[in-house]
Amino acid sequence: MFKDSRIVKLVRTSVNMLSLLYGQFGATVFKGAMGLVSFVKDFRNYTSMDGNSRFKTSVRFFQPMLRDRTGSTPLDPVYFYQDSWAAGKIFKLKPSHHYDVGSSAKFVGIISQFVPVTMIDIRPVELKLENLHFRKGSLLALPFEDSSIESLSTLCVVEHIGLGRYSDPLDPNGSEKAIKELKRVLRPGGDLLFSVPVDVECRVYFNAHRSFTRDYVMELFKDMELIEERYIYGDYVHGSYDKSRGFGTGLYHFRKVK
Fold first, then answer.
1. DSSP code, position 256
2. Phi, psi (5° rounding) for residue 69?
3. Shared domain check, 114 and 45
4. Is the dihedral of CA 128, 184, 191, 83 positive or negative?
5. Into how many domains does the chain fold?
6. Rg of the Cα atoms in the chain
7. 155 in Cβ contact with 193 (< 8 Å)
């Protein structure tokens, strides 16, 4: 009777704990638990096989990776498509030197393998590559002379300026000021690769980012030539803005008028 009572209490406590965890973390808790069960089962099966004497196996070396059993390669479609698009553009344009403000460090590192690149960010990059240079700077005050840069990119950056997400000062006009600064440093005939979230209306998703309508993007760059535009909606890239699709990401290639 005593043992049965302890078991009932243990089950009740476990159920309550799982309910609390589910309320906070949802199905992730149960997926993690099932992944851990599979991990232990795999380890037992692995160690029961004929061993490879070159490699030592021990529970002391456990490093469970429980999220990688997926039917397809997990990717963020926005960064996958926009970085591929921008890299292809830079490869075709073949600038003598490319400058990037705040985009993905992986993107910058890859393009530095076929064109010299200077990365501008408020946070230093500690890793080194032969063809990659770093300059500390803000998108609101780029450390370059007027009309001095021939090739420039900033991907999914401008929408964050002035929202405080990255400890930057709050500024309701941060995006507009950043775009003005991009245009200032770009030389006549120079190319700008630019991306921002697009939506059915201009919105502030505080403090994550802003979203823009195509009309407003065109207004902000009305003094520049639009070379190409692409739009990411879900898992696909489209050739035109479609307000009915709701939230997406706009990719733009602008050229400064000579």
1. E
2. -90, 80
3. no
4. positive
5. 2
6. 25
7. yes
